[in-house]
Amino acid sequence: MDTQLIDATPEVAIIKEEVCSPRAHNASDIEYHSGHRYYAALKDMDLSPPVFRNTHTTLCNEDARFKAGFNFCLPISGRKDTPFCLAADRSDLLHTRSHKSICYASVLHMLLVEVYEELQATGNTPLIIFGSLLGAVRNGSMIPFTEDTDIG
User: Fold this and answer.
1) Do 88 and 52 belong to one domain?
2) What are the tens digits of pLDDT across the range 102-141?
3) φ/ψ of residue 78, rounded to 5
4) Cα distance between residue 112 and residue 30, in whole Å
5) 137 and 85 in a common domain
6) Number of domains in the chain
7) The whole model's pTM is what?
8) Looking at residues 52-67, what average pLDDT do you find?
9) What is the mean pLDDT of the chain?
10) C-alpha closest to that of 93 among 126, 58, 47, 28
11) Is 53 helix (H, G, I), strand (E, B) or coil?
């Protein structure tokens, strides 16, 4: 039996990943438009700013962020499966176990409620329309497999 030794150094690839966190507001310093328990729980949490990677690091540069328009929408990923996300709402975001347990519908519910409240606070009369209205009437919640929310 012949044995041959190969003299070689294994190649190692080092990947340098760009990472940043934007300047963030302290949730407990924000005055919310309602006294909902969601806001009370949010104020009690010690939240760290989000971490953006690679091309999303542009969101950490305030000047570039304001000029980006819709080129860098908030990077959200999540679940849309019906059994798990059937009655998802924003309160689910306060108790996430992992990023794989976040439902799109929870994030969309948070956005819907906060935009709705902000529109009301500025003297507008918002109206929930299209699929968001359908989900509210049919299920009393966001449609679990939707990727947007509709306010007119």
Assistant:
1) no
2) 998 999 999 999 999 999 999 999 999 999 999 899 888 8
3) 180, -175
4) 18
5) yes
6) 2
7) 0.76
8) 83
9) 84
10) 47
11) strand
pLDDT at 3: 46
One domain, residues 149 and 100: yes
Tell me what pLDDT residue 5 has. 45
123 shares a domain with 145: yes
User: Distances in Å between the alpha carbon of 104 and those of 5, 7, 26, 67, 99?
Assistant: 54, 52, 24, 26, 11
Q: Looking at the structure, do residues 94 and 131 belong to the same domain, yes or no?
A: yes
Q: Are 152 and 129 in contact (CB under 8 A)?
A: yes
Q: Cβ distance 78 to 102 under 8 Å?
A: yes
Alpha-carbon gap, residue 93 to 12, rounded angstroms: 39
Range of the domain at 21: 14-75
- In the chain, DSSP finds a helix count (H) and a strand count (E) of 5, 2
Least confidently predicted of 30-34, 62-66, 80-84: 62-66
Q: 5 lies in a domain?
A: no
Name which of 142, 115, 111, 139 is nearest 127 in CA terms. 115
Tracing tokens 């000047």 back to the chain, one arrives at 63
Residues 82 and 51 in one domain: no
